[in-house]
Automatic annotation (TrEMBL):
Species annotation: Polypedilum vanderplanki (Sleeping chironomid midge)
Family the entry assigns: Belongs to the GST superfamily. Sigma family.
Top enzyme category: transferase
Family matches, as PROSITE patterns: GST_CTER (PS50405), GST_NTER (PS50404)
Record domain GST N-terminal: where: 2-79
Catalytic reactions on record: RX + glutathione = an S-substituted glutathione + a halide anion + H(+)
Taxonomic lineage: Eukaryota, Metazoa, Ecdysozoa, Arthropoda, Hexapoda
Subunit composition and interactions: Homodimer.
Protein name: glutathione transferase
EC number(s) given by UniProt: 2.5.1.18
Domain GST C-terminal per the UniProt entry, residue ranges: 81-203
A Gene Ontology BP annotation from the UniProt entry: glutathione metabolic process
Length: 207
């Protein structure tokens, strides 16, 4: 069994999809939660000076979505042809766009003047959630491929879990199809075990 080590900060963020992927696949991994005071020393050693970083037997992988895609290919959580893989990429990108809008608000506008909140909750969130929920409705309890869990389902569930922390409420609470996916991923044995032992977040900011 290869050794897996995930390095990320002490909160969910972009580390959580990587942690969820490994948990879902039932593999043991070192959950290296980097404290803010240790960051300046670690940063220059990283491929782009950013986290998350995944090490598999010492080989480093970076960029959250490519890591999830790569793990998806190892753990049979990809499509079976180029079009299916395109569908998976597309939905992951849509979830990432929503995440970016919310993170931008949380880490900049909210800190400054609590600006842009109305735009976020009246426009961006319903817009993206509507698209994702509609797609999930056509896939019968999956996000990208009907009848098959893919890495994008796991990525999305982990990102929604992170967004819950940023927004202070569950933005998908009324999305019954996204909820189905969430329930399926969160109740997988490995994820359940991970969640039971998951350390409490210590949110930090990058200002
Ligand atoms: N494209 C990268 C972005 C990674 C990224 O923005 N990481 C942030 C935390 S979420 C970071 O390391 N910030 C600290 C810094 O840049 O010094 C990915 O998707 O993994």
């Amino acid at each position: 069994m290869p050794s897996y080590k995930v390095s990320y900060f002490t909160f969910k963020g972009l580390g959580e999809p990587v942690r969820f992927m490994l948990a879902y696949a039932n593999v043991d991994f070192i959950d290296n939660r980097v404290e803010w005071e240790d960051w300046p020393k670690l940063k220059p050693t990283l491929p782009l000076g950013q986290l998350p970083l995944l090490e598999i037997d010492g080989r480093a992988f970076h960029h959250c979505i490519p890591i999830c895609r790569y793990l998806g290919s190892i753990f049979n959580l990809t499509g079976s042809n180029a079009v299916e893989n395109y569908e998976i990429d597309c939905i992951a990108d849509t979830v990432n766009e929503l995440r970016l809008k919310i993170a931008m608000w949380y880490y900049s506008y909210k800190r400054v003047k609590n600006e842009k909140y109305d735009e976020l909750i009246n426009d961006s969130i319903p817009y993206y959630l509507g698209k994702i929920e509609d797609q999930a409705a056509t896939k019968d309890g999956y996000l990208a491929l009907k009848g098959k869990t893919t890495w994008a389902d796991i990525y999305a569930v982990a990102i929604f879990d992170y967004i819950h922390d940023l927004m202070g409420y569950d933005i998908v609470k009324d999305c019954k199809n996204i909820k189905k996916i969430q329930q399926k991923i969160m109740s997988a044995d490995g994820v359940k075990r991970y969640l039971k032992n998951r350390p409490a977040d210590q949110i930090i900011t990058f200002n």
